[in-house]
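Exercise 7. Predict the joint structure of the components listed below.
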Amino acid sequence: MSDNSLAIRKFSDLANPTRFLALADRVLPWFAALTVLAFAAGLWLSFTTEGDYQQGETVRIMYVHVPSAWLSMMCYTLMAISALGTLVWRHPLADVSAKAAAPIGACFTFLALVTGSLWGKPMWGTWWVWDARLTSVFLLFLMYLGLMALNRAMDDPARSARVSAVLVLVGFVNIPIIKFSVEWWNTLHQPASVMRLDGPTIDPEFLWPLIIMAVGFTLLFFTLHIAAMRNEIWRRRVTSLRRQAARNAGRENLVP
Amino acid sequence: MMSLFFRDLKLSVRAGGGAMIGVLFFMTVVSVIPFGVGPDLNLLSRIGPAILWIGALLASLLGLDRLFQAEREDGSLDLMLMHETPLILTVFVKCAAHWAATGLPLVVASPFLALFMNMDEFAIGATMLTLLAGTPAITFIGAVGAAVAVALPRGGLLVSILVLPLAIPVLIFGVSAVYAAVEDPAPFLPPFMILMAITLFFAVIGPVAAAAALRHSAD
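Solution:
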């Protein structure tokens, strides 16, 4: 068997929830340990490096703010890919992934908004401005909450997954708007300084802690996401077992 | 398709007065603002276009949950799903009828409400034009929300919550086009063109996504 077909088989093996649970049990401790290591290194670096000559100590907010903002967009992208998985390939775990990602994404978006406004008060002199970047991220937060409400509103997980997948894909329009908002409109928010075609313009002294913190946050995201997916699978099993039990109990009552 | 258009139009104009409720709500929202901010005519004429736009946006959200709900209740939605005309086209026609029944009256009512706001003729004309170009976009975005929430027993409020974030760009560019028209230095055409582009974009995306959601919520 060639490597390629083996890889495909590995991917479709994951469609079996039991196999996924076994895999999740195996990789979760590693992810958690790596997260702790990355956070330890990242936090130590971000507290020991010098403050900026202009921004002083408040520059350290960046090490939480920027990774959260990245993850808020990455999480929605992951949900959009999962939505494609639900609608196109009917992968049974895709809707579990999308549903589990929504609250985590909402948390990271909230964190980005809060740290941003904490940073904005000393730097810009105000907690909040209605500029393009802030407004579009706030709309992203509202969309996460709306998707969570939609997921809660329906009983049947299969149907709610397919319907909310449509909405996730429509809402994906917002992600490029967020990414390029600082370049399309002249706003208070600073333009991109790390993810640039001509290389990062940020000083290496700040870049390294930022990268390590970003890696730590990403690992944290995947740890939480896999754990949430596992919980969601278990919750569905419990629900179906309960339904089965209720059906059996009803049958016993009917037949004396 | 024409018969479907007129059927939907008649249903929403005659039965239950759904179309009139939108206009009444629009009037209520606009007339509440002066009580809130005070009867300062200069201030009102400055914020007038924005108030009209917000009122129109909220009023168009109000009737959205009825777009597919009644069809689902009496079973004609299943017939539409099985019909040989593409579902996307059916959804598009239903959206057009819905806009003609609820969006168009808002556009027609806006000059009269603009008088409350002490706006001059030029601003009134600009507001009407932008509303005419922008409210179809709200209907097409709303169709997605209505289709997503059609399976829910009480989806009305949820539709508004789901649709509002996506409809914000329409509001932004609608209002900025009016202000660009009223204030001389700012050019009117760029924001107006973007508004038209948003409408055309969602006229394509909206029916496709709504049809997909309807298909998936049916089985």
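Discussion. The longest helix of chain B spans residues 87-116.
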